[in-house]
Amino acid sequence: MNILSMKTQKIANWGNYPNVESNIHSSEYIDEVIQTVKNSDQITPRGNGRSYGDASLGENILSCLELNKILAFDPNNGILQCQSGVLLSDILEFILPHGYFLPVTPGTKFITVGGAIASDVHGKNHHVDGCFSEHTLNFNLIDSEGNIVSCSAQNNKSLFYETVGGMGRTGVIVDATIKLKPIETSFIKYEYQKVKNLDDMMLSFENCLDWTYSVAWLDVLKGGKDMGRGILMKGEHAKLSELKSTNRKRPLLPHSNKAINMPFFLPSFVLNDYTVKLFNFLYYNKQLAQLKNGIVHYDTFFYPLDSILNWNKCYGKNGFTQYQFVLPKKNSLDGLKAFLNKLRSSKNFSSFLVVLKLFGKTNPSAHWSFPMEGYTLALDIKIKEGIQELIKEFDDIVYKFGGRVYLSKDAFSSRKMFNLPDNLAGKFTSVQINRLKK
Ligand SMILES: Cc1cc2nc3c(=O)[nH]c(=O)nc-3n(C[C@H](O)[C@H](O)[C@H](O)COP(=O)(O)OP(=O)(O)OC[C@H]3O[C@@H](n4cnc5c(N)ncnc54)[C@H](O)[C@@H]3O)c2cc1C
To answer: Which of 19, 168, 255, 360 maximizes the CB count within 10 A of its CB?
Structure first.
């Protein structure tokens, strides 16, 4: 019986820009997925569309969401094998009660394992645990001939490292085996620190390297001596002995699936300079003390945005882009200052979601992965007239300071901003790869 489904639909990724009419193929059967690959001249592997820009969009898409089975679990050693379309949220629900957590997680749990490997995602613990690939023991990949190739850091090593961070260029990941992180509880012990400017913020990052998780929110509308002020958030997996008695009754509680839905696109005037200023003022000042400590569930610490489904509609129908770049450590302070000055002077564009992280040492074999040792800044920007010119100005600064841009977020940057092989030709492509080929 042939149950391969194909539908034609207009789709976009998380930024709702660009929109592309696509033929979407999907099947839960590997042999049908192989046939689709063999029969296609060009095809784009796709996970859950949580990249922001034009990665994972294409005329012909192979959706992996039906490859959604957990295949094996070794609770003694914390090793999980699952198909590539399984969402991290489903893995968390499954592994938490066994005392395990994801070794690396991005700021949303609604991505697939295939997407995590293809983007080689990083979390708030990059300075300690590196990227997702460092915990990926192996995966099976359908190549352009339709062969299934087993890859690991030892076996078919070059294909393994071309695939991690390779944005789907090498083939379709069908399943993967991941080494999990043992935990005592599903709670996170946190410390939130108010920091008065960028110099102090970078010093504070360097002084908290013994915390497993760290990330900062920046109020980018402030200039002068306050430039780069913000809140540095540090976290650690809480031990059982650190929990209050109510939480000790269910220490390994997974997240709940309750969330608010954002049913419609907000009119585009709602997010403007004044509302962003007001948000920044309230957010920075809601914490009165210099330091705030506590214990929260992992869902609150890692995935605050997931509690509002479709929050991307806040940016209106034209959508938004996320610009994320990394600068080498030695240039980070000067480069970030130049960038923040440029952002402040771009009066027509403001951003309330601006996040700074510190990347640690990287694995030299994972040459297509985005991180380099240094600081990474990510900001959401509403799409409107002038965005292309603004991104070009951002690119010039990032390039001048030796940095690069994250393909998983990009829809506008030029090719020189990425770590990409010379030859981008091949069966597995996307709107993004085709744009960057030109
Ligand atoms: C709110 C939010 C927060 C985020 N925070 C972070 C963060 O902290 N760190 C971070 O690194 N990223 C972050 N991201 C980006 C996100 O983690 C990546 O874009 C991830 O790749 C999305 O996975 P997906 O399953 O949705 O894949 P898609 O968006 O569908 O695809 C992403 C890429 O992976 C390829 N791909 C997908 N599945 C396969 C497969 N089975 N085989 C081969 N290639 C495949 C696609 O071709 C595409 O190039 C965030 C995204 C959102 C929306």
So the answer is: 168
Tokens 């800044």 belong to: 377
Would you say 241 and 247 are in contact if contact means Cβ atoms under 8 Å apart? no
Helical H runs in 234-315? 245-248, 273-285, 298-302
Answer whether 53 contacts ligand 1 (Cβ < 6 A): no
- Answer yes or no: is pLDDT of 104 > 80: yes
Question: In this predicted structure, what is the pLDDT of residue 1?
Answer: 39
Two structure tokens written together for 78: 């914390």
Which atom in ligand 1 lies closest to the alpha carbon of residue 432?
49
Residue 366 has pLDDT above 70, yes or no: yes
CB 353 less than 6 A from any atom of ligand 1: no
What distance in Å separates the CA atoms of residue 83 and residue 47, rounded to the nearest whole number?
11
Average pLDDT over residues 283-304: 89
Question: What is the per-residue pLDDT for 4?
Answer: 73
The number of angstroms, rounded, from the C-alpha of 104 to the middle of its chain's C-alpha atoms is 10
Check if the beta carbon of residue 382 is closer than 8 Å to that of residue 271.
yes
For ligand 1, mutation pick of 20, 27, 46 (most atoms within 8 Å of CB): 46
Cα(335) to ligand 1 centroid in Å equals 27
Chain position carrying tokens 């509403």: 382
Instruction: Determine the Cα–Cα distance for residues 132 and 408; give it in Å rounded to an integer.
Output: 14
Measured in Å, residue 20 CA sits from the centre of ligand 1 at 18
Closest CA to 315 of 273, 270, 345, 356: 270
Show me where the domains of the chain are located.
187-417
3-state DSSP assignment of residue 340: helix
CATH number of 187-417: 3.30.70.2520
CB of 163 sitting under 6 A from ligand 1:
no
pLDDT at 2: 47
pLDDT at res. 270:
64
pLDDT tens digits along 181-201: 999 999 999 999 999 999 999
* 321 Cβ inside 6 Å of ligand 1: no
* C-alpha 259, offset from chain centre: 20
